[in-house]
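Model the whole thing, not chain by chain.
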Amino acid sequence: MIQSYLAQGSTYAGDIDFLFDMIFWIVGVWFLISSGVFFWLVFKFRVSGNEGTAQYITGEEKSQKRWITIPHLLVLVCDVFIIWGAVRVWYDIKQHLPEPDREVRVITQQWAWTFVHPGQDGNFDTADDIHTVNELRLEKDAVYHYHLTSNDVMHDFSVPVFRLKQDAIPGRVITGWFTPTLLGEFDIQCAEICGIGHGLMPARLVVESAADHAAWMTEQSPVKFAAVAPQVGEN
Amino acid sequence: MAELIPTQPDPGHEDDHHHGEQSFVSKYLLSTDHKVIAMQYMFTGMAMALIGGFMAYAFRMQLAFPGMDVPFFGIVTPANYVALVTNHGAIMIFWVAMPVLIAAFGNYLIPLMVGCDDMVFPKINRLSYQVFLVSAIVLLSSFFVEGGGFGGAWTTYPPLSAKAEYNLTPLGSSLFIGAVGIEFIAFLLGGINFITTAMNSRAPGMKLYDIPMVIWMIVIASILFMVSVGPLLAGAIMLIFDQQLHTAFYDPNRGGDPVLWQHLFWFFGHPEVYVVLLPAVGITAEIITVFSRKKLFAYRTVLNTAIGTGVLSFCVWAHHQFISGIDPRMANVFTLTTLLISIPIAEMMFVYIATLYGGAIRLTTPMLWALAFIFEFLIGGVTGIFLGASGADIYMHDTYFVLAHFHYTFFPIAIIGTYAGVTYWFPKMFGKMMSDRLGKLHFWGTIIPFNFIFIPLFFLGAGGQHRRIYDFQNFPALAGEGMQDLRILATVSLVVMLGFQVVFFYNFIISLMRGEKAGKNPWKANTLEWTAESPPPHGNWKVLPTVYRGPYEYSVPGREKDYWPQDEPN
Amino acid sequence: MTRQFSIIRVSRGVLLACVAWVALFAASQASANDMARGKQLYALCAQCHTENGMGAQLYLAPAIAGLDEWYVNAQLLNFRSGIRGTNWQDVGGLRMHPMSRWLKSDEDVSAVAAYVSAMPKVDPPAVVEGGDPVTGKALYATCASCHGPEGQGMKTMNAPPLVHMSDWYLVSSLEKFKAGIRGWNPQNTNAVMMRGMSNLLPNEQAIKDVVAYITTLNVQEQP
């Protein structure tokens, strides 16, 4: 259902969409049945004015109570299915961390995103780190680890096409993963209120082919930002 | 307020009671009468609801027509926007739902429904309202300090709320959290009264299972509130210390932990949902039994599910924090408990639906509201499952889906529940009947636009749009054209809905002035409040009633009348 | 005949006067509208730069009241397009960049610039310590060639005024220029030039000294 609004851009997007659909059908059926019964009862037993007599049902006897205990047990069964589905997806996305091909640092602050690629040498905090502001460039089909931090308040790294969301907490580095599977340009949103600029800190996500990405890396690698120029010199 | 509460002086009453002739001030402003305090809470709550509704109007206009010069408000800056959404949420929950559902109905109904003359501690009760009024004033004053109202969501997460350099309002944030803290003190004072009165002042013969469901619900809600509020109150004090004394409880750079606040907040915040839900559920129970002339299906089951919900509600708080960086393994536990809570709540809904079976349903205005509560809350309940499932929440968290979901729970609770209660007890409160025609007009004028506000938002949420975003034009890939149309639809519906509230106020006033006189028991209900005069005098009854049976003995076979008041010997 | 003629003349005169008045009114209204719009939009700026444009160091917001209109306009456009304030180390700039994007049209930018430039100038409190204005005066000689001997700025040189400016902001700006946190983007030619000039100040102390001197200009101008 979600995919009709938003393309699936990561390996696990489909899992989340499947889970959503599963829950949708389960609770949808429940909702239709219970609201159907509800409206049917209201329609059937409505009277006009003060006429009509009602039945005296205590609901305390077993034969009456089973009208609620049986649906009730069925709800429990459905819950088990949903919990199973939720935990499975959760484990895959948040608990388990596959070996990465690439890494990227995501630094959040009021009200901007800085994305740091480790550059050619593959190590962070070296001279050839590539810093981009409000634009994240990724290679398609590579397993990425992201290391999410915040410089000031809570933010949230949300990439709707990936179906990914993770709060950034100042003072912590939170590591997670994703694998982009779709070429194109998408939106990155902040999903945790972070002050008056919360609605004004969009970032762009560009997923490109391995060749394009490598070309971009080389082009950026010297010095796009003069700020790191002295460090390049040391190298 | 004086005009709104026509009292019928009872010459014999003053003699056998401890209350003398009272001036206007002591009668209406400094009264210790539970009914007057209830009205004070209710009218304050309604005034706050108007303010909260106006805020919703202002920011929804901005969402639908970005950059617009909103009539009666002006241009909505991003700073205004976050302050508006923050205070809209806080006002609607803390200054509307709580005072009206717990304090107003609790105050009004508990002594009348358990059959005593007043609250056990009338002066504490008066103090409770006064403290509450102070909290409301403190909150509203936060808009007029330098930097303006606090704009960091009603959840007040630090470090944003803790440091002026981040939230840009050095005093506003402290006034906000201070107002919340003061308000909690008010409800702690009120809660003491509710629980004690319901447990200790019951009319002779009223056993625990003879207590009307709404009283049970308010008592359970008060217990939930009083148990859960401690951690948050402590957290709020630490937060004020962080803001004003620059301590470091939540400052990660100096050994604090911002996530601590989230735990303290949601440990209170989730039970809080049930604190306001339960009274609304109780009101619904009273109304659907009276207007379907049916005994409540499985009274004890309802009570047990309420208690079960209450206990479980303490074990689910971290489902608000699935993606907030807590240990990911914890999410599994909280998914389990969260989905378990669907069991008592579903059972409660089944019980209410089952109560309708075999009834003689009279679709009066209060009954329509009560039925609407069941149906709308059902939508709120089922959509919660998506969010309780941790895996799906990764995507749904903080989107409009969440927003629509909790408005489908809070709107039925705070607005539908309140209207149900007010239209049902209006004859008792003011001795006049409300116009049923205007009542129904108001009902449909509220319910239909309500669904048109929030159903579109489910779609926006499924499309990945986040809440609290000031302007979606910054997100080209997400803000499709259809999305903007949905937002406009929601906004227009909101304006229509707000417009229809005028009908309610008109009906309220016109019924007070020209309404048909209500007898003691216009709805032919069983519970004790309907045996008192309408409106009940100070002290409620000349002779306190004695109770012989449970509250829901409607249509008992072999009786001439289809109701059997609790105080009738046979 | 004469009477009729005179009536025509009078009525024509009245008509002309009306037209002139309407035109004048419209013109004044247009600028008044502009000001009103600027004031309306300034509500957001006031959140950090404060109501009177004094600025607030806590929010990294410098004083802006009475800055030259052309300069405010240019800087807002720079922020909006991202050629200023999008360096990853520029904390204040990264806060200003999104805020400037609130101004959707160039008309709104000019309206705010007009409003800001019309605000009465302020003297923000001096907070930077340890600068020696005497040494600073010598260093300022270079600056004076563009920013003027009184620090009043020169539009022809694209140099903004330096007086009535928050001293901490002058220090942090010079530091940013020196470190290349400002003036890194080749499209922002003025900033690139300033970045080069900032390197003439050899160290932290020199920056403080020159700012200390600029602060004295501030005081001198007052009487």
